């Protein structure tokens, strides 16, 4: 007889060898996998810590587009050659204070500061204001060239000796009443656009290094002289339209009469009178007749 062998799982359902291997090895495999995963996780964390942090991207500097919309006008820069001409026409000096209305990229203010002036730009677009400040810094004139974000119609212009602008005629006309209230002798210079029926005192067009918007227009705020004045017992009766004058000295009509800031000139009875206005008085010389003076009556 063959010897009888008792099954290992006597009385139980037979277990196949493959199943037995799976049941007995699974806990070990599970432990090994957990250990490997932990090791990989620690290694990855160490690598991430060792790598330098990425530098934040440098913001791109604002660059305006020619023709972009603004509050009152589109932005078009004044050619540099005309900037120089405008300042020349205004006869600026380092003692002058300049304000540029709608200062854009700041070139007029910066050029004035480079000539020694204290200059300020008024610009509604805050991006252009920041750009102008950077440009002034690069030019080394940020101590004399400043910029503010403001509405030009809400800005006090009374401290300016020179006002520059590149605005539309309609905007200039809207500004005109304010400009005419500025101290006599204040110089106003516009790129191309006029001031309605207030004719400029001077105009110059350049042809070199300029293809568009190449005319500079200058106005000098006139002293207010309309009314009656006593000139050595004669009545000087003046009618004023901006800088242009008409009227009579005694019974004689005056001609070629105008204001140039505080300077007055006219012809009466064939004699040219020139002088300076100082509030309620004026004085000067009459050609061939010596000095003259007048007092407002």
Automatic annotation (TrEMBL):
Keywords in alphabetical order: Methyltransferase, S-adenosyl-L-methionine, Transferase
UniProt source species: Achromobacter pestifer
Pfam families per UniProt: Methyltransf_31
Keyword Transmembrane in record: no
Superkingdom field: Bacteria
PANTHER family: METHYLTRANSFERASE DOMAIN-CONTAINING PROTEIN
Name of the protein this chain belongs to: Methyltransferase domain-containing protein
GO molecular function list: protein-lysine N-methyltransferase activity
């Amino acid at each position: 007889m063959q010897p009888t062998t008792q099954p290992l799982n006597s009385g139980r359902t037979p277990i196949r060898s493959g199943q037995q291997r799976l049941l007995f090895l699974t806990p070990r495999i599970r432990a090994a996998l957990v250990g490997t995963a932990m090791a990989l996780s620690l290694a990855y964390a160490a690598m991430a810590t060792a790598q330098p942090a990425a530098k934040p991207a440098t913001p791109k500097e604002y660059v305006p587009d020619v023709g972009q919309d603004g509050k009152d006008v589109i932005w078009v820069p004044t050619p540099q050659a005309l900037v120089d001409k405008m300042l020349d026409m205004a006869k600026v000096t380092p003692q002058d204070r300049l304000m540029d209305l709608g200062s854009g990229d700041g070139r007029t203010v910066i050029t004035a500061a480079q000539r020694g002036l204290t200059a300020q730009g008024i610009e509604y677009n805050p991006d252009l204001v920041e750009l102008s400040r950077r440009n002034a810094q690069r030019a080394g004139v940020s101590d004399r060239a400043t910029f503010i974000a403001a509405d030009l119609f809400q800005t006090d212009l009374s401290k300016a000796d020179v006002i520059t602008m590149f605005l539309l005629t309609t905007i200039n006309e809207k500004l005109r009443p304010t400009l005419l209230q500025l101290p006599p002798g204040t110089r106003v210079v516009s790129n191309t656009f006029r001031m309605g029926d207030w004719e400029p005192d001077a105009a110059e067009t350049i042809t070199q290094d300029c293809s568009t918007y190449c005319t500079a227009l200058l106005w000098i705020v006139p002293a207010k002289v309309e009314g009656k004045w006593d000139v050595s017992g004669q009545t000087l009766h003046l009618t004023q339209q901006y800088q242009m004058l008409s009227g009579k000295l005694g019974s004689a009509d005056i001609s070629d009469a105008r204001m140039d800031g505080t300077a007055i000139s006219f012809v009466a009875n064939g004699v040219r009178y020139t002088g300076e206005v100082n509030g309620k008085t004026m004085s000067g010389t009459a050609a061939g007749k010596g000095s003259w003076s007048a007092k407002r009556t």
